[in-house]
Amino acid sequence: MAYATINPATGETLKTYDDHDDAELDRRLAAADDAHRQLKSTSFDDRARWMRAAAAMVDTEVDATARTMTTEMGKTLAAAKAEVRKCASAMRFYAEHTERFLADVEYDAAAVNARRALTIYQPLGTVLAIMPWNFPLWQAVRFAAPALMAGNTGVLKHASNVPQTAEYLGQLFGRAGFPDGAFQHLFVASDRIEGVIADDRIRAVTLTGSEGAGRAVAAAAGAHLKKTVLELGGSDPFVVMPSADLDEAAKVATTARCQNNGQSCIAAKRFIVHADCYDEFAELFAQRMADQTVGDPMDDTTDIGPLATRDGRTDVSDAVGEAVDSGAKVLVGGTPPDAAGWWYPPTVVTDVAEGTTMYDDEVFGPVAGLFKVGGYDEAIDLANAVAFGLGSNAWTNDAAEQEAFARDLDAGMVFINGMTTSYPQLPFGGIGTSGYGRELSDLGIKEFCNAKTVWVG
Catalytic annotation on 265? Predict the structure, then answer.
């Protein structure tokens, strides 16, 4: 399986790469292992200096990097530039805060008959990162920045359709001053990943991807007793109650569904609306979805570019077709254009039946399912009816409802009167078939550290 840049706006193959052979793979794993032995002995100040240098490079190279991402997976150029800048911000965040996050924790020594009792945090070693194409820079950097600052090294198996972005990341941290081999990309097919996980030089694995990929990686890592962090799919609910600002809710709902051309695990996908405000919200939402501009992702006036892959577009189209065949109604969109490239229009579907993909699963494109409910309890039951539990959104200006939603929504994250997003300052992750473990914040950096208890008599 060759890695290839295929422009999703045209379907044209622009550049191909051969997979790394076994000798090259071994060389890279050995380099990562050697780099860890060096990096774990460096100071937080040294790592922070290198990380800030990497952030400065990312900022300087924003235009070229963003164009590469847009060409490889179709996100709008504006969104790509925002992603690049977010990566630089996260690098600086961990450069500033890691020493505090990983400071020794002192306990009550007298209570355990000691002169001193504490926990110290130490890196595990080389971590394999398996990353997807939808946020090709951010998904990798939100792992790489804390991992490197903690003293771990990383090898990146990126998605096969973003090889130029993978190559950029594989060279970035070495250019910034980190030891040679501290962060490298691997061009390897998925059927070789189990062997990489089994290698003694790999100490842990992190994956962002599908539920199926998560199960496979967890099984392979579990067989070798290696730590995993999994961020998998989502079918996030977006609940709207009568007290909400409906115009603002519809505006944010459109962004929440169409961000990244609708290809985001934390994109709102199921819009659950109280009957008392359903008709008004549906009209506002459908109009805003219809007003989205689909076109050249390099054009500043474009809201939505093409989907990243031909198969992805087929999956979206099939899900909408199945829903319609089962009695659903299309308010907006629903028909892909007859054009080169992998386009799909913003779409709103109502009366989605149980048992269909749109009801139970994740649709990875700008397609919204709209559901009417009679009250709070029905909204919660529907929101929690799927196996996923990544993000969730609730719109209400009732303080009691806000507290109730925060308590009752089964998800790793609840956003009230806003859309689910990621911040370096906040833990990110899910429950259920959306995975386990956390990225970002202090929790994310500690996932790949040994919390070592020290007792001194």
Answer: yes
Active site residue 280: no
> Catalytic pick from 87, 265, 277, 449?
265
Supply angle C-alpha 420, 421, 422, rounded to 5.
Answer: 140
Residue 26 has pLDDT above 70, yes or no: yes
Query: In this model, does residue 1 exceed pLDDT 70?
Result: no
Rounded to an integer, what is the distance from CA 271 to the centroid of its chain? 21
Query: 379 with 407: CB under 8 angstroms?
Result: no
pLDDT at position 19 over 60: yes
Pick the catalytic residue: 83, 211, 231, 447?
231
Q: How much is the pLDDT for 308?
A: 98
Sign of torsion, CA 427 256 394 353? negative
Q: Residues 198-217: what's their mean pLDDT?
A: 98
Strand blocks (E) in 27-177: 105-106, 116-123, 126-130, 153-157
State the number of CA atoms in the 13 A half-sphere of 100 facing the CB.
Answer: 7
Give the span between the Cα atoms of 457 and 451, in whole angstroms.
20
d(CA 159, CA 167): 11
Residues 317-341 pLDDT 10s: 999 999 999 999 999 999 999 999 9
Measured CA to CA in angstroms, residue 253 lies from 226, 281, 345, 370 at distances of 39, 10, 16, 11
- Whole-angstrom Cα Rg for the chain: 23
Quick one: average pLDDT of 151-160? 98
Cα→Cα distances 393→103, 230, 262, 390, 414, Å: 34, 21, 16, 11, 6
Q: Which of 249, 260, 265 is nearest to 370 (CA)?
A: 249
Record the pTM: 0.97
Q: Are 226 and 203 in contact (CB under 8 A)?
A: yes
Residue with token string 């977006």: 238
The amino acid present at 230, given as its one-letter code, is L
- pLDDT more than 70, % of the chain: 100
